[in-house]
Amino acid sequence: MRISDKYLISNLFSKATLELLTENDGHIQVANNILKHLDVNYRALFDAYNSIYKMMMTGYRNEYVFKNAIAEKIIKGRHKMANVSYFTEFRVRKVIADCVVVNGSTSAYEIKTEFDTYNRLQNQLSFYKNAFEKVYVVVPENDVKKLLIEISDDIGVLSLTKKYTLNVVREPTSNIDNLEHEIVFDCLNKNEIYNLTLKHFGFLPNVQPAFVRGECRKLFSQLPKSTINDEFRLALKSRHEILKHKESAYKIPSSLLSLLFTSNFSEKKYEKLIYNLNEVIA
Question: Residue 239 in contact with residue 111, Cβ under 8 Å?
């Protein structure tokens, strides 16, 4: 696979391209882009995505392959898309967790592919441990020994095998005692902060609007760490429930699950996505 093809492939598995596939004739634009760069035989984009993803699994395991493995093996496989939420590129102060999975606990996943270094890993993990109950690092199976030297025993480790399975090398320990009120608070949006404050204190601070968030922060700092862990989990679960994607998840290529699970299209757009992926174009 040529390096130019790799950039094309990264673009194909992007939110912008998924959005394009919800538009009239969007599949034609995507198909033409593929034909210009890749020698892929297919009748519809559904088949093209399956074919290209197989190429990626064997020849170019970029970050998206790891994200999609988490979506496919953990969200769809283990949790059956029930009572679970899934996020990608989740910001925690100055770092961004590659994936966040929320069910009975909050879990952050940091992905390190064969193309990545561990230069920023310790800083990333320190922030994750201050916000999430569990923290995992996901690496290719050949890099497990190298990773174990780099990280502490409280961090979970998953390996993506050559057979495209996710193996649990080590389960993480709970980080509830390590949670930092300030960092968890900054992960919440305005409505979540207001609802949480009303729930636990029965009022919102009677100050000028510009100062309400700051006063809520002070109140939040009084809550036990077990409580802020529970409230953060409930807030994230209320943002995005995977179950609404269940029907669509069985009608699109499995290679697009990570993008599907983090999308928020209208019902009409989901129908157009499925139609465009299956429309015969070659």
Answer: no
Report the mean per-residue pLDDT for the chain. 94
Which amino acid belongs to residue 275? Y
pLDDT in tens, 216-239: 999 999 999 999 999 999 999 999
Query: What is the value of pTM for the model shown?
Result: 0.95
Provide the residue count of the chain. Answer: 282
Q: Kindly list the distances between the CA atom of residue 244 and the CA atoms of 119, 236, 263, in Å, as whole numbers in the listed order.
A: 38, 15, 11
Q: pLDDT tens across 140-181, in order? A: 999 999 999 999 999 999 999 999 999 999 999 999 999 999
Q: What angle do CA 100, 105, 110 make, to 5 degrees?
A: 30
- Which distant-in-sequence residues (6+ apart) come within 8 Å of 53 by Cβ? 13, 65, 68, 253, 254, 255
